[in-house]
Write a structure and sequence with these properties.
single chain; seven-stranded mixed beta sheet; rod-shaped
Length: about 600
């Protein structure tokens, strides 16, 4: 709006300010009104040199320099609805005049202000450079766009409300406030009652400012931060009270809360020392802080519910696993019970067979049924063999009972490998010859005896079990026993030994199918009941052998490519001392 000029006013002789003692009694030199877009609606100017009254002048006669900065101050006054002091350079012709006065919103009942009125006095004349320098030294107000201030804070609240991730809430809060308010630094701290200090969880700061992420703020009862958290009233605090080092602007501290319980602290810092926080700004930031506090509380509840859901899911998984384990244990127990019943049935048959043989042959002798002394001696020998067989079965049963009860104690001593093999050959020679099988023993080539570290009787028992099985289940071919020294240190009953000896018993017998091999070393388990009836035995030989070898610090393994393809059983036993081996060159020579 442009008003017709009523007079041409000169300021050549009216630039000197009136003394401060006379200032309050003087009428203003300038009165103008502006709308929210910064357009000057009316302008009145008084020529003090002629002692004239205020007269309307053309709006282009006197204008503020750098209108975008001046415009921001107009918007700030309208948004806050509070009058503020003004000291700003205006351009009148080719002169720069510093106007000192007041900018007030034009308040109307029931409506937000849309115009401001400026009343001011000429303070002094400035050069162009001084006027520009004065404007540039003013606190920035670019963040206060028309209705943009409120819109900016609302956008921050909207962005934060869209997530339930705590880290995202903290970072979006400081980034949003930092950009909307144009501050140098914005920090947020997570607060929980009972702790002596709180850490900075997110930070926004301008590039030239040092990071404060590593700062921990004291929240003891005597601290200023504690006062803000307990009263929930914003306060402007000295920077050093929060651990910020150096000459820094004061910090606006505002607590975030939910249901009047604090859960965080927002810290804002302007770049300029002289920049002050207005009541309007503080109120709007406090409103946002309340919303942020609610969002933080909801995010924490969500995180707790997620943790509870995860714990519940893990507990359910563990219960399912435990249920599965119990089901497997029940199945195994039922299978073990069945196997024991089957084992007892087979064992009872195995026990009755030699016992009936003994009774039958002895009855024949007692009744005088032998035709001659030779036949009588044959009856007695058969009765003796049956008694030995019965004793072996009973020993197997007692051994497995001792092993299961954990009462099998073995004393380990040096055992000569050659003596052991010689005894095995002597005790099995008759069975091998009866079935016309080949029998071969291969031992390491050494200049001195190979000495094992084990229990001689139990090693002999293991060898007889393995060789006996090979003879029993082999109809054609033969049996090969191999002993190899492996220079691998081992510890047996707390004693370190220099190596181990791997003994293998291989045969060309009936073999075992791949799917049944895992049952070989199960207590009371037999591969095939029909085979037990065909070949005899309790099915305990391999199990007892495995337990005895393990008691001496060794390992038993079984290999077979399938039925009809033979089998190999290997076991390891500790080497008592390193023997002197025959070198390859010596052997060739």
């Amino acid at each position: 709006m442009t008003l017709p000029s009523q007079s041409s006013v000169s300021v050549d002789d009216a630039l000197a300010p009136a003394p401060q003692t006379e200032r309050s009694s003087l009428e203003p030199d300038l009165v103008l009104t502006q709308d929210e877009l910064g357009v000057i609606c009316s302008c009145y100017w008084r020529d003090r040199s002629q002692l004239s009254d205020l007269t309307s002048v053309d709006t282009a006669v006197i204008l503020p320099i750098r209108p975008e900065i001046y415009h921001a101050k107009v918007q700030q006054t309208l948004l806050q609805s509070v009058a503020q002091t003004l000291r700003y350079p205006f351009l009148h012709g080719d002169r720069y005049l510093l106007i000192d006065g007041v900018m007030s919103p034009v308040l109307l009942p029931g409506r937000s202000p849309t115009h401001v009125m400026v009343m001011g006095w000429v303070w002094c004349e400035l050069s162009e450079a001084e006027a520009i320098a004065h404007v540039e030294a003013l606190p920035p107000a670019e963040a206060l766009q028309p209705h943009g201030y409120q819109r900016g804070l609302s956008q921050v609240a909207w962005n934060v409300r869209r997530t339930l991730n705590l880290d995202a809430i903290w970072q979006k809060t400081v980034n949003g406030l930092g950009e909307v308010l144009g501050v140098a630094r914005c920090l947020i701290c997570s607060y929980e009652a009972g702790y002596p200090d709180i850490a900075v969880t997110a930070e926004y700061c301008q590039p030239q400012w040092d990071s404060a992420l590593d700062i921990r703020l004291p929240v003891t009862p005597e601290s200023m931060a504690h006062r803000v958290l307990t009263t929930l009233h914003p306060q402007v605090l000295p920077a050093e009270s929060l651990g910020l080092i150096g000459q820094q602007p004061p910090v606006l501290a505002i607590a975030t809360c939910h249901k009047d319980q604090p859960n965080g602290l927002i810290l804002l810092q302007h770049a300029a020392m002289e920049r002050e926080w207005g009541a309007f700004e503080i109120d709007k930031i406090q409103e946002l802080a309340s919303q942020i506090g609610t969002d933080i509380a909801h995010a924490k509840l969500y995180a707790e519910s997620q943790n509870l859901a995860t714990e519940l899911r893990e507990t359910n998984d563990r219960l399912r696993e435990k249920h599965q384990e119990l089901e497997e244990a029940r199945t195994q127990a039922e299978e073990a019970s069945r196997l024991k019943s089957e084992f007892l049935a087979n064992t009872s048959h195995e026990l009755r067979t030699p016992l009936n043989g003994m009774i039958g042959f002895l009855k024949l002798v007692l009744d005088g049924m032998a035709d001659d002394p030779e036949e009588q001696a044959e009856f007695i020998q058969e009765s003796y063999n049956s008694a030995v067989h019965l004793l072996n079965i009973i020993n197997d049963i007692l051994d497995i009972a001792k092993i299961e009860a954990g009462k099998m104690q073995l004393d380990l001593n040096p055992v000569n490998l050659d003596d052991l093999m010689e005894n095995v050959t002597k005790l099995t020679r008759g069975q091998v010859a009866q079935k016309s099988l080949s029998f071969e023993i291969l031992t390491p080539a050494s200049l001195e005896p190979v000495v094992l570290y084990g229990n001689y009787q139990r090693l002999l028992q293991v060898m007889l079990n393995l060789v006996g099985n090979s003879i029993k289940f082999t109809h054609d071919g033969g049996i090969t026993i191999t002993a190899d020294i492996i220079p691998e240190k081992t510890v047996v009953q707390g004693q370190e030994k220099p190596g181990i000896v791997k003994i293998s018993v291989a045969d060309t017998g009936i073999g075992v199918s791949l799917e049944k091999q895992d049952r070989l070393f199960q207590n009371f388990s037999q591969i095939d009941g029909s085979r037990t009836r065909q070949y005899g035995g309790t099915g305990l030989g391999l199990v007892i052998s495995q337990k005895l070898v393990e008691a001496m610090g060794g390992v038993v393994s079984f290999f077979s490519l399938g039925e009809g393809l033979g089998s190999t059983v290997t076991f390891t036993v500790a080497l008592y001392q390193d023997p002197i081996m025959v070198s390859t060159q010596s052997g060739d020579a």
